[in-house]
Amino acid sequence: MSAAADHAIAEALPDSMPLISVHGVSKTYATRRGGKVLAIGEVNLELAQQEFVSLIGPSGCGKSTLLHVASGLLKPTTGQVLVRGEDRPIRAEEFGMVFQDAVLFPWLTIRQNVEMPAQVLRIPKSVYRSRSAELLELVGLGNFGDAYPRELSGGMQQRAAIARSLIHDPELLLMDEPFGAVDAITREALNIELQRIRTVARKSVLFVTHSIAEAVFLSDRVVVMSARPSQIRAIIDIDLPAERGPEMIESPEFDSIVRKIHRELGRHVH
Ligand SMILES: Nc1ncnc2c1ncn2[C@@H]1O[C@H](COP(=O)(O)OP(=O)(O)OP(=O)(O)O)[C@@H](O)[C@H]1O
Ligand SMILES: [Mg+2]
Questions:
Q1: Which of 97, 164, 241, 270 is 20–30 Å from 144 (CA)?
Q2: Domain-by-domain residue ranges, the chain?
Q3: Could you report the per-residue pLDDT of 72-89, keeping only the tens digit for each?
Q4: How far is 147 from 205, CA to CA, in rounded Å?
Q5: pLDDT in tens, 51-75
Q6: Residues 99-120 pLDDT 10s
Q7: Ligand nearest to the CA of 211
Q8: Is the pLDDT of residue 4 over 60?
Q9: If one looks up domain 18-102+171-265 in CATH, what number appears?
Q10: How far is ligand 1, taken at its centre, from the CA of residue 165, in Å?
Q11: 8 A C-beta contact, residue 47 and residue 199
């Protein structure tokens, strides 16, 4: 093989390497009464670069736990999480996280909350100030930068948390039911926006949702998890065109994938 071909392969390799590999991960929580809860069984999952993967499964099956383990915020009981094939935790600048409950600092304004990760990462103010303005606009909070979290509804706070997860332009987004507290119309708009951000800014996303339609609309793959101790029961490839608009939700192809996932979920309720 020529040196040029060798070089081409070496260059191609990093892209084919999964961004995140979850290998044999299980998590047992110690309860306050001295008991143990096996939250997730042995899970293996890979997230490719620029891939959108949704996790769906019954309440309490360990979706949030898996997301926290992937972020390095929680240590797994067994197994490991690799970042680009390396056994190391993911770095703060590499990912943004939206928690199931928007966790905003009550003593900071919405703009200050959104800018917080950029400050921690020492990004120049000139850069993050214009980005925070854009992001607040994007999530429909353009007029609320100077407000405090207590002055906003739950859904608005959640949208601020979404803006905050994007402020440092991370490669990976970990999103735990980000639209759970948002009304249906705003949720649809945010879905379309997330789809756009993701294709334009080429992000990888691990996304937890209870909405099958939302998972199908956004994802390349949907991971169906069983009840606790959870395991992956099915991984469904979403063979829909990459460009997805609201009209796609009405299509028979969309509907048949939704029904397929519904059946998978129903089968594993107990
Ligand atoms: N800190 C903890 N201590 C003890 N048990 C915990 C802890 N956190 C979670 N669990 C348990 O682990 C299991 C998985 O919880 P987790 O929050 O990951 O589920 P989930 O799939 O995100 O649920 P939901 O859809 O309701 O958000 C649950 O049975 C829960 O009671
Ligand atoms: Mg959860």
A1: 97
A2: 18-102+171-265
A3: 999 999 999 999 999 999
A4: 29
A5: 999 999 999 999 999 999 999 999 9
A6: 988 789 999 999 999 999 999 9
A7: 1
A8: no
A9: 3.40.50.300
A10: 22
A11: no
Looking at residue 119, its amino acid is Q
Task: With H, G, I as helix, E, B as strand and everything else as coil, classify residue 202.
Answer: coil
Pairwise CA distance, residues 172 & 190, whole Å: 18
148 lines ligand 1 (CB under 6 A): no
Distance CA 165, CA 47 (A): 19
The Cα 229–Cα 224 span in angstroms is 13
Nearest CA to ligand 1 atom 11: 39
- Strand boundaries in 111-211, DSSP class E: 172-176, 204-208
Tokens of 82: 């690799």
SS3 call for 65: helix
- The answer for residues whose C-beta is within 8 angstroms of residue 105's C-beta and 6 or more apart is 112, 113, 116, 149
Rg (CA), the chain: 19
The number of beta carbons lying within 10 Å of the beta carbon of residue 113 is 25
Distance 129 CA to ligand 2 centre (A): 32
What is the number of the ligand 1 atom nearest to the C-alpha of 40? 14
Helix (H) or strand (E) holding 152: none
